[in-house]
Amino acid sequence: MTAQHDKLVMIEQLVVLLRQVFNDSDKQEITQRFISALRMQNHIFIEYLFDFQQHIDAIEYDVVTQKFNLKNELFSELKALLIQMNVSSLNYEQLIIKCQQLNSQYHVIVQNLFKLKTMIHSVSVISTVLAYLVKYVISLTDLKVTISSLKNLMNLSIINMKK
Length: 163
Known about the structure:
The chain is mainly α and about 160 residues long. It has 6 helices and no strands.
């Protein structure tokens, strides 16, 4: 039993040593790495904000740094909209509200563009069908002219045969 106990003690000492070497016991540093790795990949601001807020409280940031970190990992379209709006005068809470509004507007625009793209595709299909119908009608007209010409030729032949 002492051999096993000695092994456990050695493992515990190794874990302590590894924590000291790699400094993973520092919650602020771990949180900072998490926030630095956090990206607004799913394009839903409220989910990004939830993850951000959960971890930002562990680090004592000033407001300017909080705003910078919040804006830094937004998806590029939302970041571009914020740059155009010059939001530097907004406080942290106002910035959050502005991001939520812009994100909602962005999603509405994306949905409308998708609907428009679908409508354009439908119009394209309809115009292709109409082009084929026009060709068909022209072919029918050509066929009627051909039939009419043949009838005239036959009538002339019959008249000539009677003579």
